[in-house]
Input
Amino acid sequence: MAESVVNAEHPEGGAPEGEATRRDFIHIAAGAAAVGAGVMVAWPLINSMNPAADTLALSTTEFDTSKVQEGMQVVITWQGKPVFVRNRTAAELQKVLADPLSSLKDPETDQDRTKPGHEPMLVVLGNCTHLGCIPTFGSGDYGGWFCPCHGSHYDASGRIRKGPAPKNLVVPEYAFTAGSTIKIG
Output
C-alpha cells in the first residue's frame, strides 16, 4: 500500500495559514462568474425601464409666442396633451390682478402662474382638473375657459372660479429661452 505523505509542518496536508490554495481560487473565480452572469441577466430588464427614444423626444417642446396676437390663444401639443398659450389683454390682466385671493377656490396669484417680464403670456395645460375634459376658450362667467362637461368656470389666469373642478388649470414647467420662445418641459 502506498503511504500518504504528510507535511511535517502542516500535518493536515493544507497550506500554511494565510496562503491561498487552488480551492480558494476556484471559489473566488466561480463567485465572480456568478456575479457577472447575474448582471448580464438583469441588465436587459433594468434597461427596459428607461424611456424610449420617442418618449424622450416628446419630453420638451418649443414654441414662438410672438405668433399669438393680443387677446388670442393657441393650442399646442406637449406629451400628447393640449397646452393653451394665451396672450392676455391689459384689461384681462387688470381683472385677474384685482381679484381677491379669498374669492378663489384654489388661491394662487397670477404672478405665481406667469414668468416675470412676460405677464401677459399665460401657459397652462388644457385639461379640466375635474375629469380631464378640454375647456373652451373665451366663454364662461369669468372671461377665461368653460368646461362644458360638468360646468367648471376658469378666469383669464386659469384659476377655478365656479364648478366641480378642485384645482386651477395646471401650469407646466416652462421657460422663456430666447426672446419670445418658450420651452415646455
Notes: The mean pLDDT is 84. The first helix runs from residue 22 to 47.
